[in-house]
Amino acid sequence: MEKVFLDDLKIGDEVVKFDRGWLGTDFLTHKVRIDNPSVIERLRQNGIEYVFIKPRNEELQKLDDLLDGKSASIINEIKEQSAQCQLNLKDLHQASDVYTESVRIVGSVLDDIKCGGMINSTAIKHVSDSIAEMTMKKRGVLTSITKLKQHDNYTFHHSMNVSIFAASLATHLGLSKREVQIAANSGLMHDIGKMLVPDAILNKPGKLTPDEYKVMKTHVLLGYEYAKKCGVPEEELKMIIEHHERHDGSGYPYGLKDEQISIFGKIGAVVDIYDAITSDRVYNKGIAATSALKLMFQWADKHINKSIFEFFIKNVGIYPVGSLVIMATKELGMVGKMNAANPMTPVVVIFMNKNGGRMPIKVVDMAKSALDAQKIIGLINPENVSVPPEVYKYVENMNTVG
Q1: How far apart are CA 2 and CA 128, in angstroms?
Q2: What's the pLDDT at 354?
Q3: How many CB atoms sit inside 10 A of residue 384's CB?
Q4: Does residue 60 surpass a pLDDT of 60?
């Protein structure tokens, strides 16, 4: 057991003992799960100062520390990797063009399927080869583009994002070039079965009924059979059929457990969930990346493979003071100060507009900004960027004590 004061309790903690007998409280038992802040408040109202909890999952604690800015060692580990993910502006513009054109091609392919046509394997391969090549040569450039969330044509953008995330994750896992290509290709096709689901269910602006959900779940088998009929190789069918299977066997369509799921199925599960819950849809607004990672970590080794997911979270952006970043507005800035509460939402000193011209210094505290436009989409290679001296001075003053 671990003694914890109320202010240090976290969502998900399991209380096994109070600092007093439970008969003196309005709880029926000592055993309480902290599902939301109101449970902590109820403990406080009962005069409880501290409790004893079950030992926290060590990896979950590490993630909490990372996201809460409490673990310098973890932050430094990711900082050291950040140089590998720096982007050149020319590469970013090229990647943006590749992404836009690829979404158009994917949309056309999926529309053909909806109309009863065959899968255009040539078009899919053209897109997936571009994704795989760019991912292996210039890590991080395409995943940065996915942060420019599109609110229209969710299915098309989701297919692109899953392909990009899958290729990136396969690369970080050290898979071969051929396996990265398979991840990119099958990512594009993972949801083709949804084109065979009635539009009334697919585009319903609200929660599905149990019967509608049963129909929606058929998209996995429908997509698998359709792709197989079109001659898609077996290795590229794995993500289509397995991306809704879960580590503990609670998924569908076959209820496979972790050891029965292929590497592509495991990758597909992680990236499909992440992009789905962070994207805006007609009936649901996406949640912030940090919230999504915390939520998904609670599912590790329940719904998704923990080892695969650990590789995924290592790609989360930690932005050291002094690093150059590009915003979703296409403006450039320098990280001026880390946020102690959350290192992924720093204070940014913006000095260059989207056209590459100088602009008056603008300071954005991302922890206080609710605007999607103020998101950081990636680290910029500083070699070809001329930073005005006053920006360095501004940042220096922000970090001067006293």
Answers
A1: 49
A2: 86
A3: 9
A4: no
Q: What is the DSSP string of 36-80?
A: SHHHHHHHHHTT--EEEEPPPPHHHHHHHHHHHT--HHHHHHHHH
The residues, ordered by sequence, that sit 6+ positions from 70 with a Cβ below 8 Å of its Cβ are 64
Distance between CA 318 and CA 22 in Å, rounded?
Answer: 43
Q: What is the DSSP letter of 333?
A: E
**Cα–Cα–Cα angle for 39, 45, 50, nearest 5°?**
70
Q: What pTM did the predictor assign?
A: 0.65
The helix (run of H) or strand (run of E) holding residue 154 is helix 154-172
Q: Does position 262 have pLDDT exceeding 60, yes or no?
A: yes
The residue behind tokens 């920006």 is: 391
Q: Taking the CA atoms of 47, 50, 52 and 56 in sequence, report the sign of the dihedral they define.
A: positive
Query: Which residues, including other chains, have CB under 8 Å from residue 180's CB and lie 6 or more apart?
Result: 132, 135, 136, 167, 170, 171
From CA 347, how far away is CA 27, in angstroms rounded?
43
